[in-house]
Amino acid sequence: MRQIVLDTETTGINPKLGNRVIEIGCVELVNRKLTGNNFHRYINPDRDSEEGALAVHGLTTEFLSDKPRFHEIVEELREYIRGAEVIIHNAPFDLGFLNHEFRALNLPSFEEHIGGVIDTLVQAKELRPGKRNSLDALCDHYGISNAHRKLHGALLDAELLADVYLAMTRGQNSLGMDVEVEETSTGISLEQVALAEILVVRASADEVAAHEELLNGLDKAMKGTCLWRTAA
After folding, report:
1. N or C, fewer C-beta in 10 Å, the chain?
2. Is residue 167 within a helix (H) or strand (E), and if so which, with residue range?
3. Residue 209 and residue 226: Cα distance in Å, rounded?
4. Is 157 annotated as a binding residue?
5. Cβ–Cβ contacts within 10 Å for residue 15, how many?
6. Cα(122)–Cα(87) distance, rounded to whole angstroms?
7. Residue 7 among known ligand-binding residues
8. Hey, which CATH number is domain 2-168, 3.30.420.10, 3.30.2000.10, 3.30.1360.120, 3.40.1280.10?
9. What is the mean pLDDT for each group of 10 consecutive residues in the chain (232 residues)?
């Protein structure tokens, strides 16, 4: 199964007000493993970022001035995403911008190119109702280091989201290419231990009697009922 974890940065929060996509970052997973076949592009939006957006991503007009326009990278993007299941945090935001960019070029919508969408924000709210479910909060919850994340960046955020998604879906928590089977000190794999039959050995009549005698002694010593009886 091919999945693409995707994030964007934009000049503002509303494409209907002329805001544009300025960065796209994608991480490819095949059968829940990182392939290294990432897609990352900066894009010249031919406009300034709004002050609030610039504070989030730090991508200045000067930095983006020599980058390609969206129409120059769209065919690469279409080919990269084609048929994949796309994983996005707060999907309506990114899809709104991408669909707007595609429509402006008279292309079928972004969603018509892919095999479906998973919104990790929706998943997180179902798993953690009433909790903060931002990407940073989820990284903290699942023990994923984001100490190097000073500003938002599409590729970095896509990489973090890939780890979060794998952790949330109880799959592979690491993006490593190879997974080693952990072994116990006896050389038996933990998987074998988990599958082993649990043998229950019940106490004999003599052992039960000896235990009762011990409890009676504790009762007498404390002139009441010992904790072991109340705990039972």
Report:
1. C
2. helix 154-168
3. 17
4. yes
5. 20
6. 11
7. yes
8. 3.30.420.10
9. 96 96 97 95 97 93 97 98 98 97 98 97 95 94 80 88 93 43 50 52 74 67 60 51
Q: Where are the domains of the chain?
A: 2-168
Query: What pLDDT, on the 0 to 100 scale, is given for residue 184?
Result: 46
Q: What's the CA gap between 139 and 130, in Å, rounded?
A: 17
Q: How far, CA to CA in Å, does 10 sit from each of 99, 119, 232?
A: 13, 19, 61
140 annotated as ligand-binding: no
The residue written with tokens 């993007």 in the block is 77
Q: What is the 3-state secondary structure (H, E, C) of 169-229?
A: CCCCCCCCCCCCCCECCCCCEHHHHHHCCCCCCCCCHHHHHHHHHHHHHHHHHHCCCCHHH
152: annotated active-site residue? yes
Write the DSSP string, 126-137.
Answer: HHSTTS--SHHH
The radius of gyration of the chain from alpha carbons, rounded to an integer in Å, stands at 27
Give the distance from CA 6 to its chain's centroid. Answer: 11
| Token pair listed for 201 | 């050995």
Token pair of 88 as six digits: 């996005």
Residue 63 tokens read as 């930095």
- Is 71 annotated in a binding site? The answer is no
pLDDT of residue 180: 41
